[in-house]
Amino acid sequence: MNKYLQQCKGLLQSATHKIAIIGNESCDLDSAVSALALAFLLHQRPMLVEPWHTKDTVVFPVLNVLRSELPLKTEVTYFLKQRGISLNNLTCSDEIKWEDETNMDLVLVDHHLTKLGQPVIGIIDHRPVDVGVQQFNPQAFRTIELVGSCATLVGREILKSATAKQLTEGYEEALELLYGAIVLDTVNFSKEADKAKPLDYEIAESIEKETHSTTPENRDTHRESMFKSLVAARSDVSELNAYQLLLKDLKILSESNRVVTLPGFPMSVQEYLRLSGRKEHLSRFASTTKSNVVLLLGLKILPDGSVRRDIGVVPIDDKRLAEKIVAALLGDKSTSFGLEKIETENVADGATFFQQHSLKASRKQLIPIVKHVLSSL
């Protein structure tokens, strides 16, 4: 994999045609490794992108994060280093002059809408479909399935495209990267979190067989060990301040001239609110992102593997929008977040905080609700 990534970096300046495999803007582990693994596959076997691929095409992965913010993605940097991948060989989004790339196509992984101007020729995603997906090239290959991890869908593509003997060095490494994301995204196949779908189980087991990473007897121990190490890496925020935590796992929704930001924390929101300087950092963050409302999303995994979620709705300069979002969350029947109001003092005027008792509902389910509110303004 390192050799492939080095090769990409060397060819990007001179390539006459490029296909960028890019993850979503949160650049979590699932998004990052899905981009790396799919790019490696399409580099070796470009069948999915054959109509757009020539002998001079360079297929390369892009981590959708600024280089300066890559260290904030602690579980990503930890896992890639552990797998022997040099961070210097990665391409981050700000290292490409997108406005100058007139002969580049895009494949989106772990999202299906983009503000980039290049043609989208492929999509692999695991979230509910936004109607905007219909804007894309009807010839583009498209896989959108509601599974626990996008890495599962990329893993299926690799496993059905070739065996280990048919691909060059790096094949097992790509699968191992995906395996880590599947274990983390499904909360180690937790029944309580209820993220894993049958395909997640199937692909994880197939990867275990292909890579000989564990035996059936040691499988549970192996998964638990990997899960705990990744959670520990994701939760290691010892070097991050309250501002950096807001950027660590961020989604931004913009519509009707309104901006709602959704930072996700590897801790509870209530813990975040106790951090030093968080008021000043929240104000700075809101100014930088031009946020009208900030939704703080907490996820805490306890030592016994159980999960706790909480939410904070913080109006910056639009209390009416914040109130509409709160009403929509409380009134939603399809997801049922199971919200219980928490009284929290001295945060922000009009801020509302909830304990979330439905652990199955995540940001993936929350985003369509917020989008609907924005579109109705």
Question: Mind explaining what this structure looks like?
Answer:
The chain has 377 residues and is of the alpha/beta class. The N and C termini lie far apart (47 Å). A 6-stranded mixed sheet has the order 6-7-8-9-11-10. The chain has helices at residues 2-11, 29-44, 74-82, 150-161, 171-185, 198-211, 219-235, 242-248, 269-272, 278-289, 319-331, 363-375; strands spanning 17-22, 57-62, 104-109, 120-125, 141-144, 250-255, 258-265, 293-301, 307-315, 339-342, 352-356. The mean pLDDT is 91. The chain has 12 helices and 11 strands. Strand 6 (250-255) and strand 7 form a beta hairpin.
Largest sheet composition: 6 strands, mixed
Rounded average pLDDT? 91
Strand order, largest beta sheet: 6-7-8-9-11-10
Work out the radius of gyration. 20 Å
| Shape, per Cα inertia axes | globular
- Element-by-element helix/strand order: HEHEHEEEHHHHHEEHHEEHEEH
Strand portion, in percent? 15-25%
- Taking the alpha carbons of the first and last residues, their distance comes to 47 Å
Level of helix content?
A: 25-40%
Tell me the number of strands.
11
Helix and strand content put the structural class at: alpha/beta
Low-confidence stretches: none
**Number of distinct helices:** 12
